[in-house]
């Protein structure tokens, strides 16, 4: 079975397992798609988006709400790259009304985009204020905005705050922010099914209507679209699973060797979007049962560091009548997109479980690491010394001055002897080093095993990044029963890094 066919099979199995009747009944229509590198690998469409007998399809347009924020952030960074926006200057330079805010000098576009400006969390208010006019927004801001937390110190999800980035974009371009996003992001990337309002679609377009349920899907009431106004740049977009798959591919390709469309936004700037800038407490209840080493808000995107799968970039969307979520595993390009047309659908939970299920079935690596040639060369020399029973010596391996001071050679010899007394002599039929490499935390590290008569040794080498990298740390420890980690070492995401030798 090819890799593509294998992923498709895993995706279909995961979709079938996660989309049960109690889940699907919460919305008249929904679609969940597993995607990779810009294409839909498998999808499950359910129900009727308008309850008119026409079934949901991959082409059905749903409102994506706060998933819009990544498009706004990307546009802001494009203007930053051109020197037209300074993300670290006081935002009042672009939005004069902000001068009356209590901590105006601390409110930068950077802080607003990354939700650490200290403005109060406003989801409930923001949903119903999406259609406020620019004049109304200006009056609200000019009246003065108090700080809920000290700016720059804590996570506060402020829709009003991020919407002011839209006002800054309008100030420097002279055009409505929705038009700037379309001209700079949507049109160049061919995202023609993604638009700022329902009125921009032709008559007869397959748009999902919004609904609400207060009895877990037993009954539904129609919910009109919340209007599009001054806050629309943070939550008004409509889109399809195909367009969001393409958007995720554009974002995720920034971590690979062939980033897409650098003329639209540089790979470096896209990586900025997907790098955590504001810590989000894991205990906030948003992350279900996933085991995370950390999570934070980047620019218009949430960045999770999953202990098994590494970096996952995601964002939710929710408005009266709609629930949406997108998630991307940057190491493999595998993602999920989930839409439903009630706010009770729970797209975030579904998407989180679905991506974890697919990645688990595919045994996806947490990262792909290509060690420095010097890292591999040092490992080969050290491995050869150990197999030959010779001591570590600077004449054989390029060692930093600290190595034999931190752990003197006699101590190293004693520790190695004690380890070998436990696991037995090194086996004479040890495979070549390339076959024994286990993991690499990054380009400067390498871990490998050495088979012994009654177990194995785990070797770790770590180089310092000088012009000519040299070894700064080296350890040999007894392996656990699986032969892949030092005994008693706790699970780490690096256990699942896949090494590609230079």
TrEMBL record:
Region (Disordered): 482-502
Domain Beta-lactamase-related: 26-345
Keyword Hydrolase: yes
Keyword annotations from UniProtKB, A to Z: Hydrolase
Gene Ontology MF term list: hydrolase activity
Source taxon at top rank: Bacteria
EC class (word): hydrolase
EC number, UniProt record: 3.1.1.103
InterPro entries named in the record: AmpC-like, Beta-lactam-related, Beta-lactam/transpept-like
SUPFAM superfamilies recorded: beta-lactamase/transpeptidase-like (SSF56601)
A family per Pfam: Beta-lactamase
Signal peptide: none
PANTHER family: BETA-LACTAMASE-RELATED DOMAIN-CONTAINING PROTEIN, D-ALANYL-D-ALANINE-CARBOXYPEPTIDASE/ENDOPEPTIDASE AMPH
Protein's recorded name: Serine hydrolase domain-containing protein
Species this chain originates from: Leifsonia sp. NPDC080035
